[in-house]
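re: that complex we talked abt at group meeting.

here r the seqs, copy pasted straight from the sheet so there may be weird spacing, ignore it
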Amino acid sequence: MRWRFTILFLLMVAVPLGLLAWLGYMMARQDATRVREAWVAGLGRRIDLVDGGLLQEMNRLGSDFDSLLQGAALDEASLRALPREQPLIRHAFLLDARSRLVFPRPASDASGEVAAFLRRTAPVWESGVRFGPQVKEAPVVAANDQTLDLNASSSFNNRWATYVRNKEGRPLVKGDYNKEAPAPAESGWHVWFYGNGAQMLFWQQRNDGRVVGVEVEMAALLSLLVNRLGQVAASAPSDEFWRLVNADGAMVIHQWGSPPAGKPGAAPPAVRRACSAPLSMWHLEAYAGRRGVPRGNVLPVLVGAGAAGLALLGLAWMLYREGTREMREARRRVSFVNQVSHELKTPLTNIRLYAEMAQQQAEAAGEEAVVRHLAVVEAETSRLGRLIHNVLTFARHQRDQLAVHPQRAVLDDLVCRALDLWRPGLEAKGFEVKTDLQAPEPFLFDPDAVEQMLGNLLSNVEKYAGAGRWLRLTTEDGPRTIRLVVEDHGPGVPKAKKDAIFQPFVRLRNDLAEGASGTGIGLAISRQLAQLHGGGLTLDQTWTQGARFVITLPNKQS
Amino acid sequence: MKLPFFTLAGAALIGALAGALPSNAIAGIPLTPPPSTAPAMDLSVELAHPQILAGRKMTTYLKVGLTGQELEASAKRAPVNVTIVIDKSGSMGGDKMIHAREAAKQALDRLGAGDMVSVVAYDDAVSLISPATDLTDRERVKAAIDRIQAGGSTALFSGISKGAEELRRNKRPNQVNRVVLLSDGMANVGPSSPQDLGRLGASLAKEGITVTTLGLGLGYNEDLMTELALRSDGNHAFIENSQNLAGIFQTEFGDILSVVAQRIRVRVQCAEGVRPVRVLGREADIHGQDVELEMNQIYARQHKYLLLEVEIPEGAADTDAPVATAEVTSVNALTGAENRSLTRSVARRVNDPALIANTVNKAVLVEVARAISTEKEALAVKLSDEGRHEEATKAYNAACSWSLSEAKRLASPELEKLGISQQERLQMFNAGGVSANAARKMSKSEDLKNRTQNGLSSRPEAKK
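got the structure back, here u go
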């Protein structure tokens, strides 16, 4: 009873709680995925913006170089003066129409800056690239590595790419119509690798086929771009970490945002993309910042699940308290009744003793009326005794202390003895009592318990089957079981109640008119006693003339 | 302004010119009369050997010297535009940062109305502590400086870039533009090779921006810091103890405030037949007969020079050998006026070796000896970097003995001082470990000072 209640209670609480937790977890996970996807998409958009900013800067620089070179005189002094005045120019060069270097003139005895320039740019001239409109399909016009995916190899030294600048506002009509104002010259960038990183040239083809160009001062260009990125950084969300790295990721050119807790670069970037041409040798990387990848707001889910869980727990607690309180209450009542019954036993015994003595004296005195009155007192006293016995038995059962004490006895003797006690009362009520006793052999059973069962059944007959005025007691001896059958011609038990009558405190008629004629525990404890024997107490459904109760006892001999 | 050395050298030079030289041996003849406004600096063109042996090809040294003029105490000075770039990486924690903040704040007090200042700090990323502003609200800038906290790694390239950007925001002609970088560490974010930073310095110099680098403690990368200062004509100092920071900042700001001329271009045109062999110490462009050198600025009383080794063709005795014409253009820092002066240098061919010996210009030879000694020491550092310890020790010894023997020959206390300091560095180098690290930093700092005549003393009290 107790543990069943506990299991039920646990199921009632644990299952919904588990379900709630699982639901909450799933919701939070789904939310986290959604938030992460949105975050990555946002990073992608911002990478485009950053890249656009760099591209804009490069376009501006390209236009500046274009106009600078367009107006530049091509004599040695002017070309030498270019890098002296321009922070972004490291060296200038001039190619003739056949792509041969005329300034600085390649000479074996060159020294200083010129020699250094020739060393740096040697891969460019050796690659045989020709700067001009013939390399026109933008953006990559000619490259020995179309993708310029510089991740692929650790050695960059023989890689290069040339880009023709996409110029806007280029006149649609070219040629003779525009003789006065020459069409803007073809120009572009050239990227190659030397020393510790990417190097860049800006070239411009003159109308006569000569190419004038400048070597970009990479440190100054980086400085320019870094400052441009600094403006971007100011408007970036605070919890992101960005890096501009060279292709193999070995060198961080610039980084901004809040660096993640671990070593930057330890975790792979959330988004990584090569910059647009001509800066394709560099990559932009976006990472989660110090607070990690945004996880979405789990608070509502937590609060919802938590509140529901708490409500459930509260409800369960209340129910549990209520349940245990009722049980405690019931136990208290039973124990009270038990105590009262105990207290009643002693006076009852005395009453019975003195009533019997008085009856004998009255018989001796021949006072018929007194004898009759005392017989009633005795009958009522034994009824009360049975009641108390039942109550005490029930209480023992409640405390799981009910037991039977089998001993060798003869059932028929017990039935005769009991019937002798009952017969006067029954016959006084007009009952026709019949017996058919067929169990004369002794076997093992608890006579007190069987007498209590029989008493309860007979008491029921007396109480409820008075209208039938008929009672038959039958015993049957079998090899395995011995049956004791009590039949009457009373109103019987309705079909719907055939099981309920064996439950404690269930009575067929609960009306007050019936009076305090029973406690509703007689059949329950009778069945309990029969089952303790290893047998049973059943209501025979085939008997239609009234009620027929059958006590089955195992024919135990040892 | 600077070290007492330069003043002494100037005095020795004047003495030599006045006494030792015969009056007819005129080494420098000014061709242009001085402009009506007083020039911000003096130009001198001298030959190590004003008299050379006739009938032979001779090699000698031509020195083009520039001396910034004294600023009058009451005179106005050029407005300055300064960015202080502070390394706030983790290693700058504790006393270093406290001293750096104090030094920066004290330095601010030397600036006045019309000056612009900004403060940039960097660790993993660069942050603008105080954007370019005039000093109407000095306290706000100081409060911003006080909020700098150390932590993180070092994005030096971005720090310099941001500093320069702040300068550009308020760039006006006729203004002294300066980035003062204070770092105690390596650059590990962004381009971080000495070459890269050197190129950045060179590019900034073209914009008229000078970078002064202050290396604090023993952890910084001296190659990178000296290269940056060298290419942008800035000062450099190795500061072992952060307590000296305030003094260094004062000296640096003293320099910034005493700029007398900017955008100095020296062009030496060698006469026909004269071959420019090489420039000592500095990196100048030599193409054909032309030698070109640019300097960002010169401070009051600073003496800067160009040493050119020249080969003079043979000729008959008692003839003049035209050597070169030196043309110096500069912009007066205060007035913004462009000055141009032209001086021709002529050597006299004679037959008498004694006369040649008597007329030797010892002051020039001292500078030459210093330049060569510096080269020798640089070689020792290079050898040591390559792990050739024994050869490095040998080269260090060679530098010391060269300095000391030249000091004796030329009776130069300055060279002797250099030789002794080299000996000290040799001892530190041989001691190895931390002390060798310090020796290397001192060498680099000395190297820069001797090559560009720019340098801050790490012991300001010794200056007085």
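couple things i noticed - Chain B has three domains: 4-73+261-348, 80-257, 364-455. Chain B touches chain A at residues 124-126, 152, 155, 157-158, 160-162, 164-165, 189-193, 195-197, 199-200, 202-204, 206-207, 283, 285-287, 292, 294 (CB under 8 Å).
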